[in-house]
């Protein structure tokens, strides 16, 4: 074996399940890299469609294939991390493409910026046929290198696609960071959140990849309810982590707004578990009051005027007695539920135009 095979710069980890249609093309984009020092670790997650035969046809000593029983993508990626020998890790799914400059651009960036543990590049979302739709940077917006944890914990779009990211293996190995195997959606978001709690991120302007959007994507193919449940689990795991308390309160405020009003919007039982949790209790009383009032107002707007709504408003008033919006909603509800519903619905519509509704946070929301 050559040194490039035994001690590669890059370990490219590919978890695959029934990927015979696309994995050959994906491998070819790796073989075409201008940086030759890489290994590809392909963990076959229980394929039954001839994926192994497609991989076996690739006559390249840098490709390592291992079949495992089907136990999910996260477990397959974790197995790849265990087997990796490279200085850097990159996760290349079996239906995505690397541009020829990808690995060399990441290596060059790491060499120039030793302080960063992660290199995030640009690329394109594309159709199944490879037609470019939109760049990752367009969806990502303005970025700042360094400590990205506060933004990443509320914005999965900061990464966009796993294939655009490279990480120093020592960061992952030293702190035993792994993919949560009970997650099937959002597991990569949580992985990068946990990495961001340990190291700084840098951003490349160059495009290194193409990420395929199609009906077989795990996130796109999942039902809305299942997707919400999984993303709620991601957020709940993040909220219970040691780093969460250190985040600025405006970030934690936005985090809980997303958890309560997006991921758990159709699950009142789980919402109420959140507002009695220790993590929620670490928010200032005024922010707790606002978030609980928003929950109550949203239920009112949907036609619910039950004792549960009244109880939430009492909790909001108890947490923040000076929250005048809670007093307004409570007073209207005491006069007549329909009056409170009409007021909340009207202010919710007004929110789109003037930005100061009964449903609003006490200060400007983060982008």
Summarize the structure.
With 367 residues, the chain is α/β, with parallel strands linked by helices. It has 18 helices and 9 strands.
Structural class: alpha/beta
Give the end-to-end Cα distance, rounded to a whole number of Å.
51 Å
CATH superfamily of the largest domain: Spore Coat Polysaccharide Biosynthesis Protein SpsA, Chain A
- How large is the radius of gyration? 24 Å
Query: What is the level-2 CATH architecture name of the largest domain?
Result: Alpha-Beta Complex
Rough outline? elongated
Q: Give the CATH class of the largest domain.
A: Alpha Beta
* Number of distinct helices: 18
Could you report the average pLDDT, rounded to the nearest whole number? 90
In total, how many beta strands? 9
Low-confidence stretches: 350-367
Give the helix/strand layout.
Elements: H1 3-6, E1 10-16, H2 23-31, E2 38-45, H3 51-56, E3 63-68, H4 73-83, E4 88-91, E5 97-98, H5 102-112, E6 116-126, E7 132-135, H6 136-140, H7 149-152, E8 165-168, H8 169-174, H9 187-196, E9 200-212, H10 218-221, H11 224-239, H12 249-263, H13 268-275, H14 278-281, H15 285-301, H16 307-319, H17 324-335, H18 337-354
Parallel strand pairs: 1-2, 1-4, 2-3, 6-9
Antiparallel strand pairs: 4-8, 5-9, 6-7, 6-8
Structure description:
With 367 residues, the protein is of the alpha/beta class. It folds into 2 domains: 3-214, Spore Coat Polysaccharide Biosynthesis Protein SpsA, Chain A (Alpha-Beta Complex), CATH 3.90.550.10; 224-354. 47% of the residues lie in helices and 16% in strands. It is built from 18 helices and 9 strands. Strands 1, 2, 3, 4, 5, 6, 7, 8 and 9 form a 9-stranded mixed beta sheet that branches. The chain is elongated and about 80 Å long. It starts with a helix and ends in a 13-residue tail after the last helix.
